Amino acid sequence: MSQVDNLGQVRNTQTAVEIVRALAQGYTPRAILPRMKFRVLQENLRNALWERIEEGDLTGLRLAQQTGFKQAHISNFLNRKRGLSIEGMDRVLAVQHLSVLDLLDPAEVNKRASILPPSNDEFQNVILADGRIAATEPLITSMHVKEIAKFKKAFLKKLKPEIEGDREKWERFVAIKVDAREGMSMYPRLLPGATLLIDRHYNSLKPYRKGESNMYAVLKDETCTVKYVETIDTSLVLRPHNQAYPVQILTVEEGKSVPDYLVGRVCYVGIET
Q: Quick one: CATH architecture of 123-270?
């Protein structure tokens, strides 16, 4: 039995260091190891070693000498008769100059990369994603990108953040489209299909402009609802702009606070005509 069932739980090993390096390049933990089992990485390592053996670049004896393992131990691993410990895998990776990223499917890694295409002009690229993703994912991976919206960098730079809690590591701006019910509940400020720019670094109830109510994307049922927000005791009051729609009460769960439910302030509304 391996020491871990999921490499997301690895601690204090070179494998973990490799993962940290990958994270620094813009990958999320969930993206790097999407429920990948340790045995899958071992199998990918076997395949990589067999490729080198078949090409004449490596032998089992040579690998045993490099790692300090007995040749029988290496043979049993290559022939799927036994596995390697995490430390053993790290040793093999090191002597063969391999990275844990070499054991991942490049297509899967690219699909889950959280790197926006660069923008060299006056516009900044902003991901347009589903409300569920905007409400729950600090970094949005490419597999969840529906479109790329463009906003002037000068406009975004002027927007004032108001962070409460741990939001610094969240990708600041994300765009969503509202459906028919959400759009009509905030009519005429919104219309069905409107594109909203959400500032996820503004999760405070402090008014952005004096005397004017902020419009928020709010976490509700694991997705976004768009409403005005007030508080009563330990509950959020979600008010529509359209009085034909009901006021909703959202109870703050134990261990959470109001800012946890505020996905962000709506700072731009785009309505196609």
A: Ribbon (2.10)
